[in-house]
Amino acid sequence: MFIAPHTILHPFGVNLVGQYLRRHTRFGFRASSAESVNWDKKQESSKRGRKNKAPAETGLEVLCDDGFGSVTVKDYLEAVRDMPKDDGGPPRWFSPVECGRPVVDNTPLLLFLPGTDGVGMELILHHKSLGMVFEVRCLHIAVSDRTPFGGLLQIVEEHIKYEHALSPNRPIFVIGDSLGGCLAISAAACNPKIDLVLILINPGEPFKMAMVSFQNGHSLQEALQKFSDSLQSMLNLISGSGDILRMDNVVWKLRLLMSGAAYANSRLHAVQAEVLLLASGNENLLPMGEAYEPFKTLKNCKLRHFRNQGHNLLMEYDFNLLTVIKGVNLYRRGRKRDVVIDFLPPTFSEFKKTLDKDYKPLHQLLSTVMFSTLENGKIVRGLAGVPDKGPTLFVGYHQLLPLEKTSIVEGFLKEKKTIIRVLSNQLLFSEHFGTLRQEFSLFDSFSVHGAVPISPTNMYKMFERKEFVVLYPGGVREALHRKGEGYQLFWPEKPEFVRMAARFGVTIIPFGCVGEDDFMEVYHYMPLDGIKSFNEDLPNVRATVTGEDGNQALHVPGFLPKVPGRLYFLFGKPIETRGMDNLVSDNKQANDLYLHTKSEVENLISYLKRKREEDPYRSIVSRTLYQATWGASAQVPTFEP
């Protein structure tokens, strides 16, 4: 395999224009260079167009192929074998050819800092997906290189400073694996004014191996053995990895790791950057809590723990790094994240992993049926009555324990290939739940598939971008209702969404959803503090609602499961607001349309409650027998509308 001449990128880690690496036919690399355009100028020229673009128009199509899963560990091993092990050259940056050119406008820069092996190819399973939304560059450190930690840090710092000087408003993402994590932390601590986002893979590992071994009385030989075993776990399938595992190289890597861990640990308190810690389950040297104790000093830090994944997290076949970045709302293209403009629509691999696999048992249990209403008033199965283009606002009833959220998102993705943005309570996006948010779970998958914190500003931006938006005016009051309050609407008094819809000519579609009472029965509730006091750090949660609905007691319902029934949706006849500018200033007309929409939702719910009695496959037993006869993928019939 051919790679570039042994030159460090300069100034500040960037080669002269045209000094490209020769490319391997399959695993080629190109040298990062001054070819990159000034990001700030590019951002300014497209700023106005970017604000008005829907997700599909920013370059990343809904359910596009992000390439994740097309490259495996076998490809990684082949690529590493092709990398020169002892070229005598200094550390250098390269840009993987597989990443291609980003398809998203104004992409941030992503720097990958490798682990103790120094190859720089550990990100290969994610090159294609990350390359769509980042400008990716990786650091390669030759096996024979003896650059001390301070020298490596200087290389990383110079590159970061150069890129920041070119584009001060462009965020720089830094992914650090093991030793790379020490470099990332140190660079961030030394440059607190540069906009950095750190993603650290198992960052507790270098602290454990390099520092705790001696504190626990382990000998140097024992520390070397543990460290060698750690390297072997990654390289045991690579023929010709003996150079990396030679004792002199292992001793050097361990010393490098120890110095890096000590340097980074002493400067953790100075880190101002956003930090995402990703830990996997096979942490054998120390308990998870003790290993990550030093990171509690970080001011802006999130943690996700993948308990069922191996130590080499980036090599796991079902671990998609881009999905995690999107799920924790970390991706941004400016100084501050905009939950509307910076949203990336779900890719096909994300759809298959989350909705079509992780939530497949739930969706099979719900067996959701969707109906829509055509312009002539006819009700049909499917979404034929729903407009193909936005802006569209869906207004409806919130099921108990948001039972319907994933179903409505899946339905629109499958039939309309459209992402539907669900306005959700800001509690779903809070990191104040401790261990509840440490697992990549339902909360994060909501963000991946379009959930957005409810606020007038976010609604305004989505209407401006002509998106499909779901609003539950009853909010958490309906989602956590008490016993005997099923299918009751708890809407606020003011018709604000009607005014905003009229301003943008939005099509309002009322919808009804029933089925919660076929799955669970509320039998008691546990009162909590009032909504306003419970959400002191979330001031926008119904704080502007007057009357009983704004002063209600928030409670967690206790429920008993039932033999599963079925979930039904009915989308009503579209209500056009285009040309109704008078609704913005006319309180009476706005209130009339608001009450009409509410009445339509109640009528749709009543219709579904009545018609579901005619469904011969409402029970899970009858549906199971039907699919046993016609196949698990067969669409189960329902009542005739």
Structure description:
The protein is of the alpha/beta class. 34% of the residues lie in helices and 16% in strands. It has 21 helices and 19 strands. The protein has helices spanning 39-51, 73-82, 127-131, 149-166, 179-190, 204-215, 220-235, 242-245, 247-265, 288-291, 321-327, 348-358, 360-366, 405-415, 442-448, 456-464, 475-479, 496-504, 531-534, 587-611, 620-630, and strands at residues 29-30, 92-96, 109-113, 135-140, 172-177, 196-201, 274-280, 301-306, 369-373, 379-381, 392-396, 420-424, 452-453, 468-471, 507-514, 520-530, 553-561, 568-571, 575-576. Strands 9, 10, 11, 12, 13, 14, 15, 18 and 19 form a 9-stranded mixed β-sheet that branches. Helix 5 links the parallel strand 5 (172-177) and strand 6 (196-201). Helix 4 crosses helix 5 (179-190) and helix 6 (204-215) packs across helix 9. It is elongated and about 80 Å long. The N and C termini lie far apart (64 Å). Residues 1-43, 45-50, 211-218, 234-240, 283-287 and 529-541 have low confidence and may be disordered.
